[in-house]
Specification:
elongated; three-stranded antiparallel beta sheet; about 15% helix; four-stranded antiparallel beta sheet; about 25% strand; alpha+beta
Amino acid sequence: MEVTQLSPRRPYLLRAFYEWLLDNQLTPHLVADVTVDGVMMPMEFARDGQIVLNIAPRAVTNLTLGNDDVQFNARFGGGVPRQVVVPMAAVLAVYARENGAGTMFEPEVAYEQLTRADDDSAEEPATETVMSVIDGARPDNAQAGDPEDEPPPPRSGGRPSLRVVK
């Protein structure tokens, strides 16, 4: 049987890591992509398209880690309890607040197909991502061989001295 025919691993790994974190007296946090269709949560707490949710038993009620989604009730900012639904396609990671132990989930074919079907840009061909190193100390218009890149020559003569500033 090919990998593409298997059921997704994410729900099983999520449940396993959740139990492991609790068994070690750690606080499990879930990282979710709020841009995926089907996510129901208070969007005012999301940053950069993601949200981190405390899913410890003392923080949520009615937690269900299903094969299709994660559901629970939680209070945000001390308000009234709100229903949260996170489809498995939106689950990015689970980790412990105390030490970062956990895992990030790799993309899976089943979830890529779901997000592509819902994505308006799916008709466009994928472009290759190019990464480059950015030097924050240099202005954007500076060239690598500029004389300004050279460090100033060391001062010659005299003893080094310190000055007291009050």
